[in-house]
Design the sequence.
């Protein structure tokens, strides 16, 4: 069966409409977070984006989904797809998310998921993530150890959190003021002066 959401380069569409509506984007974060928990990975995900106007909002929606299952979203700010992929594998993140639609028109956008190796997830994992994302009336996740792929090497804790930069409102138990915390990431090999390169959402 073909995949509905994931194309050859992630999920693409018009922000605000399926599959880039808020509910689906939160489910993307939730499904990715649950997948990482099933693998027993350190639950920190790097999120980078391009300069499209819709990028920050999409990032917040995915981060809400990640945070809802105890996974920490780390903002890389504006960063290229290769840059996010390199940092994910180099600095020990459990996964990465890139919000970009490359050469598509300015009003479009997209979401790419990157495994801990810095490569896209295998088709079988994307298919399972898609199944969970589209199951909006409840999730059934596998026990720990399932859906492990050979290209997903164990993550390494080689980064430090240097600042709490931003928070976004989310609904939680009817409380509109509940928030998730975003921290920036700084490679351990970077000098202090490099901090200026990291941007909040």
Sequence:
């Amino acid at each position: 069966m073909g995949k509905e959401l994931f194309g050859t380069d992630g999920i693409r569409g018009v922000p605000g409409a399926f599959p880039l509506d808020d509910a689906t984007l939160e489910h993307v974060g939730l499904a990715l977070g649950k997948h990482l928990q099933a693998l027993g990975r350190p639950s920190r995900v790097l999120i980078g984006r391009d300069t499209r106007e819709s990028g920050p909002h999409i990032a917040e929606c995915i981060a809400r989904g990640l945070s809802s299952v105890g996974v920490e979203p780390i903002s890389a700010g504006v960063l290229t797809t290769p840059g996010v992929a390199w940092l994910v594998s180099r600095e020990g993140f459990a996964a990465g998310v890139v919000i970009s639609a490359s050469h598509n028109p300015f009003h479009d956008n997209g979401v790419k998921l990157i495994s801990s190796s810095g490569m896209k997830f295998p088709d079988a994992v994307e298919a399972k993530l898609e199944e969970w994302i589209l199951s909006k009336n409840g999730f059934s996740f596998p026990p720990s150890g399932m859906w492990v792929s050979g290209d997903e090497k164990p993550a390494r804790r080689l980064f430090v959190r240097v600042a709490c930069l931003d928070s976004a409102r989310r609904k939680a138990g009817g409380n509109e003021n509940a928030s998730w915390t975003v921290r920036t990431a700084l490679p351990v090999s970077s000098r202090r002066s490099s901090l200026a390169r990291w941007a909040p959402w």
Observations:
- Confidence is low (pLDDT under 50) at residues 137-201.
- The beta strands are 11-13, 44-49, 72-78, 95-99, 109-114, 159-169, 179-187.
